[in-house]
Design goal:
The complex is a heterodimer of chains A (915) and B (121). With 915 residues, chain A is an alpha+beta fold. In chain A, 55% of the residues lie in helices and 14% in strands. The longest helix of chain A is centred in the N-terminal third of the chain and has 61 residues, at 25-85. Chain A is globular and about 105 Å long. Chain B is mainly alpha-helical. Chain B has 4 helices and 3 strands, in the order H-E-H-H-E-E-H. The chains are: A alpha+beta (915), B mainly alpha (121). The interface between A and B is medium-sized, with 25 and 14 residues.
Chain lengths: 915, 121
């Protein structure tokens, strides 16, 4: 009990002592230890009184309070020193050594003190730089927090880096197509379990197909749960422990294994109110009693393919494979092969996936008698990689955008500092003349920049806490593991490193400039150095870089906007308007292998729905549009079972032959309709009608092709149509189908009567996922993900443009200020106001003219990076590039012109007196 | 800066935190932690930063309102590790004056019916 407390006290003390570095050294010497001890004591007390939340509050407050107090303390210390040195004691030699601040100390401490004082004299300048840097560092820190959680952190399982998923890749030399599947045959897995030396253990998971949907009944309303059937060693091999109760394992009594279940934390809280009593009661799953033996912690998750297809869906219950219904087992055994949807392996320490894959490959080739028609290879993918592979590209895109924004912030600050150095020209020149080394001047500039950057880093760290929550709320369902994101010490360190880097980067050019000061010029006049052509050239280059970066970001944003437009305009090949989809999944137990009964039920449902007023047509289909399926397919084409009216209902034209008719019955000739892509791939220019669709490696002739349907973007709106074959549900009824209904008016209005009609046939039929096709399309990954990243990149681009415009404002305004006298003379000599404005606007135009082409060029080079997000628009789309160039150029010119106009509207007399 | 000869009444108005610190010392000397606890509870649970507290104590010490003691009235505490603070005579004058000022302000607020008059008075 006392051990962790002392540990915590030590950490709090260290934390506080670090913060105390903001205080002057005298304070640290005298009161530092006591204050830190007091802080640790206060933390301990807060913990006793209010737990972690209270301690956190105190830690955060200190983060703000201590530097603020330190700042004040240093200021008053500085004031006292200034007072003392006002007596002009022997300063000459001291000034030679340390011509910067009026200070007794040397080195970093005195540099910092001086920086604080000089910043305090210019609060507007300090605030501007702080705001710009905080934006850049804040965006970077926020994104890092998410990248860290999603891509960098190991899974929350012991030794998770040795967990891999098995994938089989196949190439069919005959057809030229490739496939990739996670399915593994049971006999192959058995052989692996016995013979694969590099693997410590295997886990088999079935989480698709017919048996992973559980209906939790018996208590409240029946609830449909997604579950996974897992081999009994699942938890042991993964190294996962139950948060409550225990997990099941291979050593358990077989009778228990047949009826055991482990549930997720979410289900435990939602359904059982977090009451541990659930461990002592039986629950009804699919009307069979199961014993909940354990509850997993909220952090337990493994790669769950379903969550990629349906955002937010997750496995909530794990049941041993032994609990599979007996008839299903028997059916599988009769077919001679059971497939596991996913097999996860734990490699022995030090074994790399490629070596293990080769060993598994050798065993598989021996057992499975490889199909000579397909070259199949075993691959092992790290579980973590597999979980986050969809997140890589979007995060790379966002990282790029954020990096550009950060770079732009730094360059912008560099521009502001450059101007300030120029304004301080005479002060710096004086110091050089007094003998200050150039290194000393550089240190002055750098310490000021670093101080600002570190302050901005602290602010950014605080801002990131809010921003991360916001991004997770927006993007959580499309980014796996995003909900694990926490702004912690790691992130603080990152923010610190980025701030230090940004500070150094933004100080680079001004520091170099300061060190190259020629004292003679600086001393000649209070102003002359600021107008030096070298300074102006530097300012122009800095501005040009800003314009280029902003152009680059805007091109990215604009391309994404155009992509969204193109996606909305694309014709999916089917008409989703006024169609509603309802999942009507039947349980296998109901039919016990009587296909005729399912057929009769389907007919009844379709007839009953068809009779409803407002229904135009109704059809059943195994895979409704815009719902991408799992990647189990080892065929050249996707197979879809549909009822007779399917094509008519979705308005998918039959381009040759016929669709299905009432004459295609169970007893009739098996027929198939293929789409144009499959027709082209299989038969080229030949007429496919009357031919048979034979599977490669299958001796049976296959069904008769009676029609060719037009291609449709069935899987996803952004994907080229895949090869597909449609078979009649009448000829091969299935347990699970989705009912599609085209209505005369708003489909939502009909849902209630649809339910009544369906329940009139079978009151126990679960009706799930009721959604209009239009909503399904709008909610599809293709649109949702792009819309989100379009908004984020667009936001960054606008911020970049705004920063650049302020940069232009600064440069033009300063040019005018530096040339006030000249302008006055010209006005006095009779130059028109417009002419003078035109003259000064040029100072802002050169960098714009250089920056825009540079940005466009960079976007051409970097376009490939964006290509995977674009749709219907190439990364080098000239219209987009020209439009962006026009927007950037136009707004920059307007900014320059408006600034010049305002700045030159001085009275000639005043301007002449300005000297 | 030393204000040793200044009179307590001339120190008002006190800054709120200074008042709370002096207030915590009215019943006798206290160490830093005791002051911190008292300040935080009197301020309604607002977190008080230890470094700022010590800074204020230093200032009050310079102004002659508090004085560091050896904590002789707490013989059981591990004295060598803790510094105690006590009110000086001037400090006591100052807090009395400040308290009177606050009461006047509170009365004025009551007269304007900004707050209900308390039952006790």
């Amino acid at each position: 009990m006392s051990q962790p407390r002392r540990h915590g006290g030590g950490a709090a003390r260290l934390y506080y002592r670090l913060l105390l570095l903001t205080y002057p050294p005298e304070f640290r010497r005298e009161d530092g230890a006591d204050a830190a001890a007091l802080f640790a004591e206060a933390c301990r007390e807060s913990f006793r009184a209010g737990g972690v939340g209270q301690v956190l509050r105190r830690l955060l407050r200190a983060l703000v309070d201590v530097p603020r107090g330190g700042f004040e303390a240093r200021l008053s210390a500085g004031r006292e020193l200034a007072w003392r040195s006002a007596g002009l004691r022997r300063r000459t030699r001291a000034a030679r050594r340390a011509p910067g601040p009026p200070s007794t100390g040397r080195g970093l401490g005195s540099d910092l003190r001086f920086a604080i004082q000089s910043l305090r004299r210019r609060p507007a300048y300090a605030a501007t730089v702080l705001a710009v840097l905080t934006m850049g560092i804040g965006a970077t820190t926020t994104l890092f927090t998410i990248v860290d959680a999603v891509l960098l952190r190991p899974l929350d399982l012991p030794g998770s880096e040795s967990l891999v998923e098995v994938r089989i890749h196949g190439v069919n030399p005959e057809g030229g197509w490739e496939w990739s599947s996670s399915r593994v045959r049971a006999d192959v897995l058995d052989a692996w379990r016995q013979g694969a030396a590099p693997v410590e253990g295997f886990v088999a998971v079935n989480d698709s197909g017919l048996d992973n949907i559980f209906y939790l009944t018996g208590t409240d309303e029946p609830e449909r749960l997604r579950g996974a059937l897992v081999s009994s060693d699942f938890f042991r091999t993964l190294g996962a422990q139950a948060a409550l109760g225990r997990v099941f394992g291979p050593g358990d009594d077989p009778n228990l294994l047949r009826r055991a279940a482990v549930i997720s934390d979410g289900l435990f809280r939602r359904r059982f109110a977090g009451d541990p009593a659930v461990l002592r009661t039986a629950v009804l799953l699919n009307d069979e009693p199961f014993q909940v033996v354990g509850v997993m912690g909220p952090g337990f998750r493994i790669y769950d393919p379903a969550s990629r297809i349906i955002p937010g869906e997750k496995v909530e219950i794990w049941v041993p494979l032994e609990a599979l219904p007996e008839d299903a087992l028997r059916a599988a055994q009769m077919r001679g092969q059971t497939n596991y949807d996913t097999v996860i392996a734990r490699l022995r320490p030090g074994v790399d996936p490629a070596t293990a894959a080769a060993a598994l490959q050798a065993i598989r080739d021996r057992v499975a008698l490889p199909d000579p028609a397909q070259r199949e290879t075993v691959h092992l993918v790290r579980l973590r990689e597999r979980m986050v592979e969809t997140a890589r590209a979007p995060l790379a895109l966002l990282s790029g955008a954020v990096a550009l924004l950060l770079a732009l912030s730094c360059v912008n600050v560099a521009g502001v500092q450059l101007a300030r150095t120029a304004e301080r020209g005479s002060e710096l020149a004086l110091r050089v003349a007094l003998g200050a080394g150039r290194a000393r001047l550089v240190r002055l500039v750098v310490s000021e920049a670093l101080l600002l950057a570190l302050l901005a880093g602290g602010l950014a760290w605080i801002a990131a806490r809010a921003a991360v929550g916001l991004v997770v709320a927006l993007a959580g369902s499309t980014l796996p593991r995003a909900d694990e994101a926490v702004v912690d010490l790691r992130v603080l360190l990152f923010a610190f490193a980025v701030s230090a880097g940004s500070g150094a980067l933004s100080a680079l050019v001004p520091a170099w400039h300061a060190s190259a000061q020629d004292p003679a010029i600086g001393l000649g006049s209070g102003r002359a150095s600021s107008a030096s052509p070298r300074t102006r050239r530097l300012q122009s280059s800095v501005l040009a870089v800003q314009v280029a970066l902003a152009t680059l970001l805007l091109v990215g944003g604009a391309l994404l906007v155009r992509t969204m437009g193109a996606l909305h305009d694309v014709d999916p090949g089917i008409d989703p308007e006024d169609v509603v989809a309802l999942d009507l999944y039947r349980s296998r137990q109901r039919y016990r292998g009587d296909p005729a009964a399912i057929g009769r039920y389907q007919d009844q449902v379709l007839a009953a729905v068809h009779r409803l007023p407002g229904v135009q047509s109704a059809a059943l289909a195994t895979s409704p549009p815009f719902r991408p399926g799992r990647d189990f397919y080892q065929r050249e084409w996707r197979l879809r079972m549909v009822s007779t009216d399917y094509f008519r209902l979705l308005r998918q034209p039959i381009v040759r032959g016929r669709g299905f008719t009432a004459s295609d019955t169970v007893d009739g000739e098996p027929v198939v309709v293929i789409n144009e892509t499959l027709a082209r791939a299989r038969f080229g220019d030949e007429d496919p009608l009357g031919k048979r669709l034979r599977e490669v490696g299958d001796e049976r002739p296959g069904p008769l092709i009676v029609g060719v349907a037009a291609d449709a973007r069935h899987e996803s709106i952004d994907q080229e149509p895949l090869a597909a074959a449609y078979q009649s549900l009448e000829q091969s009824p299935v347990y699970r189908a989705t009912l599609l209904v085209r209505t005369a008016g708003d489909p939502a209005a009909l849902v209630a009567s649809l339910r009544t009609a369906i329940w009139g046939i079978d009151p126990e039929q679960p009706i799930e996922r009721v959604i209009t096709l239009q909503a399904q399309l709008q909610g599809s990954r293709a649109l949702v993900v792009r819309a989100l990243y379009m908004k984020l990149v667009g936001l960054f681009a606008l911020a970049a443009l705004a920063l650049t415009l302020t940069g232009i404002y600064g440069v033009v305004a300063r040019t005018v200020a530096q040339r006030t006298r000249e302008i006055g003379v010209r006005l006095a000599l009779g130059a028109t106001h417009a002419r003078v404005v035109r003259g000064t606007v040029w100072s802002g135009l050169a960098p714009i003219a250089a920056g825009i082409p540079a940005g466009v060029l960079a976007s051409l080079l970097g376009g490939r990076w964006l290509a995977s997000f674009l749709f219907g628009v190439p990364p080098h789309d000239p219209v987009t590039l020209l439009t962006v160039a026009g927007i950037v150029g136009g707004s920059c010119v307007v900014a320059a012109w408006a600034t010049a106009r305002r700045a030159t509207s001085v009275h000639p007399g005043e301007a002449l007196r300005a000297e | 800066m030393s204000a040793g000869e200044q009179r307590g009444e001339e120190m008002v108005p006190l800054q709120p935190r200074d008042y709370l610190i002096l207030f915590s010392l009215v019943d006798g000397e206290l160490h830093g932690h005791g002051i911190l606890k008292s300040v935080e509870s009197e301020a309604g649970g607002v977190v008080c930063d230890p470094a700022n507290l010590y800074r204020s104590l230093r200032k009050l010490e310079r102004q002659g309102l508090v004085v560091e003691t050896d904590g002789s009235s707490h013989p059981t505490d591990d004295r060598h590790r803790r510094r105690y603070y006590a009110l000086t005579a001037v400090g006591r004058e100052a807090i009395v004056a400040e308290a009177a000022r606050l009461v006047r302000l509170a009365d004025a607020a009551k007269a304007k019916k900004l707050v209900p008059a308390s039952e006790g008075t």
